[in-house]
UniProtKB/TrEMBL annotation:
InterPro entries: COX15/CtaA_fam (IPR003780), HemeA_Synthase_type2 (IPR023754)
Signal peptide segment: none
Transmembrane annotation, as ranges: 26-46, 111-129, 141-159, 171-193, 214-239, 274-292, 304-329
UniProt protein name: Heme A synthase
Species of the source: Sphingomonas aliaeris
Record gene name: ctaA
Length: 359
């Protein structure tokens, strides 16, 4: 009778992958895409802070790639802008040169979005045609592409909210736009890390998402959501002192008595700023816990990155308030949030891969 220990081991996933698979190359490509997403998050922050987001009042996914090329085209764009409430109520004295300044950032934002779409879609088609995508990753990469396309639709949905009645975009739609971008970023980085592991070990399985990672990522996304509400409501301008809001932890009259708690937490600038100030420390605690777990799992780089970026993010948040939302500080705060998300995704992946080894 054959000894059970001498039975052939189950086939590993290496036998299931096509010989043409190139996980390392695809991982590198995805890291490039992730860097571009961080860049567009930065440009999006500048666009918002310079109040440039409503300068282009039409959505032309193809023809819009070209900016105005002559005086007549510039004047036509400016005339379109003059028809919306933001011009009539806020910028009625704006000159054509002033319009060109705000047009620049919105145009760059949209152009970069198109570029990211191309940088993702064209190599994806190339890898697919050449059968270089490892088995099990085609659907995931397609889902990331779909998220990118959805982001374009959400972006226009956001802009359209400020073209008829309002003088700014809906802060809720702004939050959806930012969160979708960051979910796409996290998914891109996670997939790249899975593929990098597969390149090193052809039998590697995708990492799992552990409860501590779900907690840390959940807290981070809640804090980012509150940050988007703060930005969209201009809540950062409500109080520029720290740690008190004026002369109290929570200012008298800051709670809108006629609103529900939910509406206060979403629409009341004072409450939103208060929540954004203090939920930050709950998020920091969850992130530090994840960092410690990552360190224990052998991912000291990820753990140290979280520790550093959490401390920097808190300091940048305080500085943003105390400088009266200085553009360069506020943009750094937003970019650092994206970098912190990358570090958190990295640490979550380390912990998830460690659990596979243990199991």
């Amino acid at each position: 009778m054959q000894n059970q220990s001498s039975a052939p081991a189950p086939a590993r996933s290496v036998a299931l992958q096509p010989a043409t698979a190139r996980p390392a190359a695809i991982a590198t490509w995805l890291f490039v895409v992730a860097a571009m997403i961080v860049m567009i998050v930065m440009v999006g922050g500048i666009t918002r802070l310079t109040e440039s987001g409503l300068s282009i009042t039409e959505w032309k996914p193809v023809s819009g790639v070209l900016p105005p090329l002559n005086q007549a085209q510039w004047q036509a764009e400016f005339d379109n802008y003059k028809r919306i409430p933001e011009y009539a109520q806020i910028n009625s004295g704006m000159t054509l040169d002033g319009f060109k300044a705000i047009f620049f950032w919105e145009y760059v934002h949209r152009l970069l979005a198109r570029l990211i779409g191309s940088v993702f879609a064209l190599p994806l088609i190339w890898f697919a045609v050449r059968r270089q995508i490892p088995r099990g990753y085609g659907a995931r990469l397609t889902a990331i592409l779909a998220l990118g396309g959805l982001q374009g639709v959400i972006g226009w949905w956001m802009v359209s909210s400020g073209l008829s009645v309002r003088t700014d975009v809906s802060h809720i739609r702004l939050a959806v736009h930012l969160i979708t971008a960051l979910v796409t970023l996290a998914g891109t980085v996670w997939t790249a890390l899975d593929l990098r592991a597969l390149a090193r070990d052809p039998g590697a399985r995708p990492a799992g998402l552990r409860p501590i990672a779900v907690l840390a990522l959940g807290l981070l996304f809640v804090q980012i959501l509150l940050g988007a509400f703060t930005a969209g409501l201009d809540a950062g301008y409500a109080f520029s002192s720290w740690p008190l809001m004026g002369d109290a932890m929570f200012p008298a009259g800051g709670w809108h008595a006629g609103w529900s708690a939910t509406r206060n937490a979403i629409d009341n600038p004072i409450v939103v700023q208060f929540l954004h100030r203090w939920v930050a420390f709950a998020a920091a605690a969850g992130l530090v816990w994840l960092a410690l777990r990552a360190n224990a799992a052998g991912g000291k780089g990820a753990g140290h990155a979280i520790m550093t970026l959490v401390a920097l993010q808190i300091l940048l948040g305080i500085a943003t308030l105390m400088t009266g939302v200085a553009i360069h500080v506020a943009v750094a705060h937003q970019v650092n949030a994206a970098l912190l998300l990358i570090a958190t995704t990295w640490a979550a992946h380390v912990v998830g891969r460690k659990s596979l080894v243990v199991s």
